[in-house]
Amino acid sequence: RKEVEQDPGPFNVPEGATVAFNCTYSNSASQSFFWYRQDCRKEPKLLMSVYSSGNEDGRFTAQLNRASQYISLLIRDSKLSDSATYLCVVGSGDSWGKFQFGAGTQVVVTP
Amino acid sequence: GAGVSQSPSNKVTEKGKDVELRCDPISGHTALYWYRQSLGQGLEFLIYFQGNSAPDKSGLPSDRFSAERTGGSVSTLTIQRTQQEDSAVYLCASSIPGQFHEQYFGPGTRLTVT
Question: Which of A98, B61, B62, B112 makes a 20 to 30 Å CA pair with B86?
Fold first, then answer.
């Protein structure tokens, strides 16, 4: 079983709609959680951290559910520029510098 | 300012040859990471450095893979006796102390083993 699992998608979303997707992790000792964004054939870039209490950054909302070991990302009022692959990243509980990346969820926003 | 740079951007090599990939992190970033990404797959952690030392080498796929970092700056990832399954994009990232999660990635080296 992979340490970090994501629905690969694609999630096809009309412009202006809301889309949400989850990521599950297997290591209950994991302490840190993040979402990265990767555009086609580009390098990943940090989108936002995920805090226990949940957090928002503009149209993006991230939540953590420790009991069920998943994190979620919700995108409101989707823009064409939101089309990308969203990578779930989990910091290992064993080694501070080690991060496990999920394979990504592809989001395609259509006009 | 300058971001993370990697060279070469593309490398085609024959099976059995050795290759060396280079990463130049952002100045002042003490942590440096190597990942690889195969087509349609997620990033696979290989190794990270804090300064010149590598506390966790557990991600290196085999003893054909090695990495070093000198002067707390440039790092090289060496793959000996390359195999076709080594074909992937090798990504390097760096981060500042205390912000290990905010990794700045380089453009990657696309390695193709024929």
Answer: A98
